[in-house]
Each structure stands twice: as structure tokens, then as C-alpha cells.
Amino acid sequence: MPRHIRLGVIVPSSNTALEPLTQQIVAFLNADPTFGLLLSVHFARVRVTTISLSADADAQFALSPMLDAAQLLADARVNVIGWSGTSASWLGFAADDALCTAIEEATGIPATTAVRGMNSLLQQQRRPHDTVGLVTPYTPDVNKAIQENYAAAGLTISDGRSRYTGWSDNITFANLDEPTLDAMVDDVVRHGAQTVLIMCTNVRAAQRVQYWERQHDIQVLDSVATTVTAMLDALGIEVKSASAAEAWGKQFQSS
Predict the structure, then answer these.
(1) Which of 105, 129, 134, 153 could form a disulfide with 162 if both were Cys (CB 3.0 to 4.6 A apart)?
(2) pTM of the model
(3) Does domain 116-221 have CATH number 3.40.50.1860?
């Protein structure tokens, strides 16, 4: 019988996209006989309704509610806890470092995040670091903050390779449709992007990654998917699944 791994995921409360997408990704991994593990996913929510650079919006990501959610997941004896949110991309990557340390100290369970997973994959790839594109549903100032954080880390995302819808109400992000996403990805690729970051876990994009990669001969890192690969990586589990790579993109060829 395959080894059972419980994945614990912290979810923004108004997010309606990441849970079904995460379950679908896990189902693909479980169906692959070469994967050799049985995964289950367990969720806990923290209140997040608005994405902006205001103090009130930033306060949604305070440690206390995150730790409350992590403790509830710990009750289920999960093997790893992942924050399936991208707040550190604009708050600063140190925010995720502090969150993971706090969760691990409070629960004794390894912790990681969507952004940590994305950044790990960026470090592994051989594409030039000045050819990254960014696609989000966020406002211009949030997108600019993300660009600045990556620039501070040595990775340039030019304005020409940054696209956003200008929305701030988190519940609406799941309404971003595939034709609009296709156009946004097409645009950053036309401006030279060879790796595209889909930076929002409430955007239904993970199922489209494989199409974009084939269409443009690029790599796409989707934040819902990077949460899954980051959690497995935190447990020392390497993802090499042909079926998952076929359905969900190149990052599942190896974590």
C-alpha cells in the first residue's frame, strides 16, 4: 500500500479557485503509478477579502490568524503545511520566511508557501533572469511592489512584461477567464518573457499552463501548483510525473 501523505493548506477565505485546482493536481499525482504515494489535501481558512497596499489589507496577513489555521491543520496530523497565498510577493519575501518559522515552531510541522515554491523553481531554471513575465489580477501599485521585490532579489521584471487587471476585491479574481488570461500571457511573451509567473492563487490558471507552455515554448509557474510542489519538496519528495507534467506543466517533471 502506498505511503499516505497529508498536505495541509491554508486558504484565503474568499478564494474559490485554489481548493478544486489543488485537488485536481493531487488526483493526477495519485493516479500516476510511478509516483508511488497517496496524497490527501486538508484545508483551513484565514480571512482575506481585499488585496491592496493599505495597512488594513496588510493586516489580513498577520501571524496570529495564520497560526490559528496552522494549529487546526496540525489537529489533522498533516505532514506539511502550505500557505497557498501570494502575499509575500508584495509584502516582501521575508514575510514568508517569518511565517514558515512561526508555523514550524508552533506545530513542529514543516511549512512552506506558494511564493517560496515559485522562487525555488526560478532559482533552478536555466533561463535568463531578465526574461521573466508577471500576470496578476492586482492593482498597478501591487504589481509594482512585486516587481520591486523581485528586482531586490536580482530578478528584473520590466513594465513591458508585467500585466494586471487592476482589481482589488479578492472574490472577483476567480472570474478572470481563459481568453483574458491567454491575452495577458501572449502580451508578456511578445515583450520577451520566457518564464511567466501567474501570481495569484484565486486565478483559475493552473489548468491552462500546459497550453501556454506548448503554444509559446516557455515555462509558466502558477502559484496554486507551486504550493503543491513546495509542500512535497519540504518533505524531500521529488515530483517526476509524466501524467502531471502533461496536464499541469513542466514544473511537474521535477520539483
Answers:
(1) 134
(2) 0.96
(3) yes
Domains 1-114+222-250 and 116-221 share a fold: yes
pLDDT in tens, 89-138: 999 999 999 999 999 999 999 999 999 999 999 998 766 667 999 999 99
Interhelix angle for 178-190 vs 209-216, to 10°?
30
Phi, psi angle pair for 3, to nearest 5°: -65, 135
Domain boundaries, the chain: 1-114+222-250, 116-221
Distance CA 146, CA 188 (A): 16
pLDDT in tens, 82-94: 999 999 999 999 9
CB atoms within 10 A of CB 255: 21
Residue 239 to residues 57, 115, 251, Cα–Cα distance (Å): 35, 18, 8
